[in-house]
Design goal:
Elements: H1 7-12, H2 27-36, E1 39-42, E2 50-53, H3 56-64, E3 69-70, H4 83-89, H5 99-107, H6 113-118, H7 120-135, E4 139-141, H8 142-147, H9 149-159, H10 166-177, H11 206-223, H12 229-235, E5 237-238, E6 241-242, H13 245-276, H14 279-285, H15 289-303, E7 308-313, E8 317-319, E9 322-324, E10 329-333, H16 334-337, H17 373-387, E11 394-396, E12 401-402, E13 411-413, E14 415-418
Parallel strand pairs: 2-10
Antiparallel strand pairs: 1-2, 3-7, 4-14, 5-6, 7-10, 8-9, 11-14, 12-13
Helix pairs in contact: 7-9, 7-17, 9-13, 10-11, 10-13, 11-12, 11-13, 13-15, 13-17
Bound molecules: protoporphyrin IX containing FE.
Length: about 425
């Protein structure tokens, strides 16, 4: 047993504590867990505890085996939801096949490799528009002016949301995904007030506003169809029946939150990483198409915008050295898998030439693998290509601020100046 395995050290780890992720990612915890207790029982202050799965191999195994590790009792919430809350809050990400297969089939076409390739022109022109606005100033908050602006603009175009509502959707999305940060959310997940919103996704009234918005837009599309995703949802059927209104709202909310906040963080943390590793910028300067693809994968591994997702065991099963009982919560930690030294040589080195790079940033294998992965890659690459001429002159302009969350790995502010 190494030092880290001393029971006291493992017992002091608390992955359920949002404060532990407020200033930095506690990578040393994940290193200790992978080394000494890779499927670790994590007691929770406000819950019944969960298994923390930390090795790359086990994260992949759990993600693939949906029959044993089900999403049906919630994938994005660590808290255990009562059946009424679960039924009210469920979206595609909280379902298993075959329902999951049907739901995903309704929205997957525009996110496939080929259609996404065709968005490059649109993404580039939206990115240029955003950068022109931001770079007109010498100093600005990179998160607000750039990283938050690009993904929502792209997503609004796909969904059919008019431009003047982008700000509203950013704000509502922030309140949901950062529901553990008092700076961003009016109702905190771990505060008493959230109890009255327990039937809403992320336990926040912002979800209600998002549902209202989705209803207004879907009514408009029912009356006048357009070539967009909301129209696909209102026209979509499962088993020959139209999609219920609740399912449309839940899918709308999922797409806005999943596609917006995550890509923002890949961009913000990715640019922060390049500011901190200027030697890597030279690699981008001389990169051909393949070089760019490789570089983007490494930035995705490095940034890992989502720390974890949750599953629930459907049967007794042994994983690693641990015996998991039916009904136990099982949490896969992408952050840990992406620093697994058995898979990534020198994992704490940012190496934009790293290849192969089987990171788990979008999940890996399994039915829930990120729907928007190709879009996210495109947005990150185009943003970096357009920013490249000024990237070497971008400097920190004060301390960045992180989101207090063990779910989102992200920045709420990244003040920069152009030297
Ligand atoms: C860098 C940006 C992104 C990251 C890090 C990310 C990460 C993830 C992860 C980890 C999952 C769960 C995988 C699993 O359970 O196996 C997921 C699922 C999902 N993502 Fe992304 N994502 C990103 C961008 C996007 C974008 C642009 C969209 C577009 C709308 C999107 C939509 C979704 C959806 C709808 C799901 C649920 C898929 C399902 O349940 O079948 N994501 N994403």
């Amino acid at each position: 047993m190494t030092d880290a395995a001393a029971p006291g050290v493992l017992a002091s780890i608390d992955l359920s504590d949002n404060d532990a992720f407020a200033d930095r990612v506690p990578y040393e915890w994940f290193d200790a867990l992978r080394r000494d207790d890779s499927v670790h029982w994590q007691p929770e202050r406000d819950g019944r505890g969960f298994w923390a799965v930390t090795s790359h191999a086990d994260v992949v195994a759990v993600s693939k085996d949906w029959a044993t590790f089900s999403s049906q009792t919630g994938a994005s919430a660590l808290e255990d939801l009562a059946p009424d809350a679960l039924a009210a809050r469920r979206s595609m990400i909280d379902t298993d096949p075959p329902l999951h297969t049907d739901l995903r089939g309704l929205v997957s076409a525009p996110f496939a490799v080929r259609p996404v390739r065709d968005y490059e022109g649109l993404v580039r022109s939206l990115t240029r528009q955003v950068l022109a606005g931001a770079l007109a100033q010498d100093r600005f908050d990179f998160v607000e002016r750039v990283a938050a602006a690009v993904p929502i603009k792209v997503l609004c175009r796909l969904l059919g949301v008019p431009e003047h509502d982008e700000g509203l959707l950013i704000d509502l999305g922030d309140q949901m995904i950062a529901n553990t940060d008092p700076d961003l959310a009016s109702v905190l997940l771990d505060g008493g007030e959230s109890e009255q919103y327990r039937l809403l996704p992320f336990r926040t009234p912002a979800a209600l506003e998002m549902f209202d918005y989705s209803r207004r837009l879907s009514e408009a599309r029912r009356r006048q169809p357009q070539p967009d995703l909301v129209t696909a949802l209102v026209q979509g059927t499962i088993g020959g029946r139209p999609l219920p209104r609740r399912e449309i709202d839940a899918m709308f909310l999922l797409l806005v939150v999943a596609g917006n906040e995550t890509t923002r963080q890949a961009i913000a943390l990715g640019v922060q990483a390049l500011i901190e590793h200027p030697d890597q910028i030279a690699i981008l300067r001389s990169a051909d198409d393949r070089g760019w693809r490789i570089a983007v994968e490494e930035l995705l591994r490095w940034t890992t915008p989502l720390h974890h997702f949750r599953r629930t065991a459907t049967r007794d099963v042994t994983l690693g050295q641990s015996k998991i009982a039916a009904g136990d919560k099982v949490v896969v930690w992408y952050t840990s898998a992406n620093r697994d030294e058995n898979v990534f040589h020198d994992p704490y080195r940012l190496d934009l030439r790293r290849s192969p790079n089987p990171h788990t940033t979008f999940g890996r294998g399994g039915p829930h693998r990120c729907l928007g992965e190709h879009l996210a890659r495109l947005e990150l690459r185009v943003l970096l290509q357009e920013l490249l001429p000024v990237l070497p002159r971008l400097e920190p302009d004060g301390e960045p601020a992180r989101i207090r969350s063990n779910f989102t790995n992200g920045l709420k502010r990244l003040p920069v100046r152009i030297s």
